[in-house]
Specification:
One of its GO terms (biological process) is methylation. Keywords: Cytoplasm, Methyltransferase, Nucleus, S-adenosyl-L-methionine, Transferase. It is found in: Cytoplasm; Nucleus. The protein is mainly alpha-helical. It folds into four domains: 13-21 and 260-367, no CATH class; 53-188, Serine Threonine Protein Phosphatase 5, Tetratricopeptide repeat (Alpha Horseshoe), CATH 1.25.40.10; 392-497, SET domain (Beta-clip-like), CATH 2.170.270; 536-650, Tetratricopeptide repeat domain (Serine Threonine Protein Phosphatase 5, Tetratricopeptide repeat, Alpha Horseshoe), CATH 1.25.40.10. Strands 1-2 form a two-stranded antiparallel ribbon. It has a two-stranded antiparallel sheet with strand order 3-4. The model is unreliable at 193-202 and 370-410 (pLDDT under 50).
């Protein structure tokens, strides 16, 4: 497409993004190649995984069969998938949502049922069937103690029945049903008249709604039976999509985009709010474009936010972020430039963006004097220049996982669900030993201090290179390549941090029991006392310990827990004799022993083992590390189990 070496030479004289973009758009080969690639993506969008009437119909039929057998949880999933695949002009979309509301009704998820009834009506559910939805809504409001709203829903149902062309006998049946619901509503205690204790409002809601077969449990789990272990609980395969607008969970009742299958919303408010920008983004989603361009999708999303925002102050905060154009490797800049060119052509050829938006009014007029800066400059065929910036934060959520069915330990992991820009957070400089921690509620960034910060002391954020998790060489290389600076924070400059990571891979010093580098039977200098020592036969002993560890894993698989404990205790004894007390392998061994005790129901023994593991993890990751939080969470779970067991023993 473009001779890289030739452009590399030209870039040495370029001072700003607009020079690169002008050069790329003046090259006909670049423009033609990008246009052909976009055309190919556009042509492929109808094949494979897009909206599909037949697939939607098939999933709806599956849901109907599951509903008839009273498998409401399975039918809920099928109806949701049917709605996701239903084209905007298909009757399957409102019908699938209406059917889902029926499943929710029988699962006693009254609020979610009402939400789906309203959505089905907004999606133009057939008029001659709407009385069913209003009656369902009235029953839900009755269950919630909302007498006035229930009465209004009954009135709407009555109006629909009167207007519908249906046999008189059918109307009489429906009126009889209405009378029964009216009687129930009249006997309902109105929420407005209730004086609660406040207990119900403080009770947490369960994920995916309440399970109809398991009181107070989530609909995302089921009770199973096996002859070897009796009754037990399994997680169901549930849909858990993230709202495209607010980044909160949609649960298993997402509101689908009517144009693409990848985008869902948590409710109609987000659906309506996103319509202001997703109309330009939706074609790219149908073309599977965003998965191929990474953070450039964020850049485009920021453009959309910039043109629709009325907050010029926030708009200009984004523009103040540095671009590092002259610091980035030429090959990377060229790649970004071609991606930017592609996005400009996408907006021009695949959307109505330039027809919908007056760029002078919606974009240029918002720039304050001398504040422009950006990573991307897009020059359209109409010579309109659009500046986009990508300086992103990863939005994450905590997921809970277990290793297998027998493992009663819950492990938490952070999963990235989105990337966003936070100009205020970007004001905080980096340190490999930060004094703040980021967390998220939806797309809202929460910044908390994790250390005492003195007056006048700088607030430091970490750009993903924490000294407790990455060596100095790795940190320096990543920060230089990605953020274009050489870090001079304390962990990168102070001698006491020099060998921090190596401490947790060290042998035990025979002089002070401190960390001795593993030089494979060669003399090494202790990190703490400076003594020169050699640990003979360490590899052989540690190999023996690893063999015992593997034998323990096999024993656990075969449910031979006593055998596993024998091997693990032998493994631990060797490792404690040879390794530094905070070595990673010692923590792993203690953790495994604790798990085996859990499988045996020996809660107090498990607690003692986990306390040893906690000490190692705190030394490694610090008192504010997420790893320590996860371990403490496991420890408290075990304490609860122990107390429950003691209670039952006493009674």
């Amino acid at each position: 497409m473009l001779q890289s070496s030739e452009l590399d030479k030209e870039m040495k004289n370029m001072k700003h993004e607009n020079e690169l973009m002008s050069r790329l758009f003046s090259d006909r080969k670049v423009v033609k190649s990008v246009s052909l690639w976009l055309e190919d993506c556009h042509n492929k969008r109808q094949t494979g995984g897009g909206k599909n009437v037949e697939k939607s119909e098939s999933l709806k039929n599956s849901g109907n069969k599951e509903f008839q057998t009273k498998n409401y949880i399975a039918s809920l999933k099928s109806y949701t998938k049917s709605a996701l695949y239903a084209p905007a002009d298909s009757k399957n979309l409102p019908i699938a949502v209406a059917n889902r509301s029926a499943s929710l009704f029988y699962l006693k998820r009254w609020q979610d049922c009402i939400k789906d009834v309203k959505l089905a009506l907004e999606l133009d559910y057939p008029k001659d069937l709407r009385h069913k939805l209003y009656l369902r809504m009235a029953q839900c409001y009755s269950e919630l103690g909302e007498k006035q709203l229930a009465t209004e829903a009954l009135l709407q149902a009555s109006n629909v029945i009167n207007e519908c062309d249906m046999p008189g006998e059918r109307k009489d049946q429906l009126r009889k049903q209405m009378d029964e619901i009216k009687l129930k509503v009249s006997r309902t205690k109105n929420n407005a008249d209730s004086v609660g204790t406040g207990e119900s409002s403080s009770r947490p809601t369960v994920a995916f709604g309440e399970n109809s077969n398991f009181s107070s449990a989530s609909a995302g789990i089921e009770v199973k039976y096996a002859s070897q272990k009796g009754r037990h609980i399994n997680k169901l395969d549930v849909l858990d999509k993230i709202c495209h607008n607010c980044c909160r969970s949609c649960g298993n009742t997402p509101v689908p985009c009517t144009g693409c299958i990848d985008v869902t919303f948590c409710d109609m408010n987000c659906w309506n709010e996103a319509s202001s920008y997703h109309r330009w983004e939706c074609p790219g989603s149908q073309m599977d474009l965003w998965a191929q361009i990474g953070i450039a999708h964020l850049a485009l999303k920021i453009l959309f936010m910039c043109v629709i925002t009325i907050d010029s102050e926030q708009f200009n905060e984004v523009q103040k972020l540095v671009s590092n154009f002259d610091e980035i490797a030429p090959t990377d800049v060229i790649s970004y430039g071609i991606t930017a060119a592609m996005l400009a052509l996408y907006l021009s050829e695949c959307t109505n963006f330039f027809k919908d938006i007056d760029l002078k009014e919606s974009l240029r007029s918002k720039f304050s004097k001398d504040t422009f800066n950006g990573n991307y400059e897009l020059t359209t065929r109409d010579d309109e220049r659009l500046y986009l910036i990508s300086n992103g934060h990863a939005i994450t959520k905590i997921n809970v996982i277990t290793d297998n069915e027998r493992d009663q330990f819950c492990t938490q992991q952070q999963d990235r669900i989105a990337t966003a820009i936070y100009p205020s957070a970007s004001l905080m400089n980096h340190s490999c030993d930060p004094n703040i921690l980021n967390s998220f509620i939806g797309h809202l960034l929460i910044v908390k201090a994790i250390k005492d910060i003195a007056a006048g002391e700088e607030v430091f954020h970490c750009y993903g290179t924490d000294f407790r998790r990455m060596s100095k060489a790795e940190r320096q290389e990543r920060l230089k390549s990605q953020y274009c600076f050489t870090c001079a924070c304390e962990p990168c400059t102070m001698p006491r941090y020099e060998n921090f990571m190596e401490r947790f891979l060290a042998l035990k010093c025979p002089e002070c029991r401190g960390p001795l580098p593993d030089n494979h039977n060669s003399p090494a200098c202790c990190f703490d006392c400076g003594a020169i020592a050699t640990i003979n036969h360490a590899p052989e002993k540690l190999g023996e310990a690893q063999s015992d560890f593997l034998r323990a894993e096999i024993a656990v698989e075969n449910e031979k827990y006593d055998v596993a404990l024998t091997h693990l205790k032998k493994c631990l004894s060797i490792r404690q004799d040879v390794l530094y007390k905070y070595h990673n392998d010692i923590a792993v061994t203690w953790d495994f022993i604790a798990k085996v005790y859990v499988m045996m129901g020996r809660w107090s023994d498990s607690i003692l083992c986990l306390e040893h593991s906690v000490a190692v993890i705190e030394e490694r990751y610090g008192p504010s590390g997420i790893e320590l939080c996860n371990e403490m969470n496991k420890l408290t779970d075990l304490c609860v189990k122990y107390l429950q067991q003691e209670f039952w023993n006493l009674t």
